[in-house]
Amino acid sequence: MGPSLAHRLRIETHAVWLAVRDPRTPWPARALGMIVAAYALSPIDLIPDVIPVLGLLDDALLIPAGVWLMTRLIPAALMAEFRATAEQAAERPVSRTGVVLVVATWIAVLVALWWLLRGRWD
């Protein structure tokens, strides 16, 4: 039996993280990869997993879509190298940038909601 879907996604996400850090990766892929890797490796989700369906839907759609697009932007031989390195890695990296991006997004949403609703309560 082959590797699980979760294992493959973990390897692909790690490969994207490696691609972002490698100067041989084309700049459009690096820019997209920074967003994908930061979100995927962040310990905080954009939509918390405790929210039924939506909490898991963001991970199930956003991360695979970003990884798929990244594999289209990076030359196949280079992506194969990143995958091999990711497969050999023992631990999953954590993105502090991803944490900051997700927290900033939540703060922006809360501030926007507060700003929209404050006039209705006055």
Please explain how this structure is put together:
The structure is a single chain. The protein is mainly α. The protein has one domain (5-121). The protein is 75% helix and 0% strand. The chain contains five helices and no strands. The protein has helices at residues 5-21, 27-41, 54-73, 76-88, 96-121. Helix 1 (5-21) crosses helix 3, helix 1 packs across helix 4 (76-88) and helix 2 crosses helix 5 (96-121). The model has no long low-confidence stretch (mean pLDDT 82).
Task: Annotate the secondary structure layout.
Layout: H1 5-21, H2 27-41, H3 54-73, H4 76-88, H5 96-121
Mean pLDDT: 82
Number of domains: 1
> What is the CA-based Rg, rounded?
17 Å
Low-confidence stretches: none
DSSP helical segment count? 5
| Category by helix and strand content | mainly alpha
Task: Give the beta-strand count.
Answer: 0
End-to-end Cα distance: 62 Å
Strand content: under 5%
List keywords for this structure.
122 residues; mainly alpha; single chain
In short:
The chain has about 120 residues and is mainly α. About 75% of the residues lie in helices and about 0% in strands.
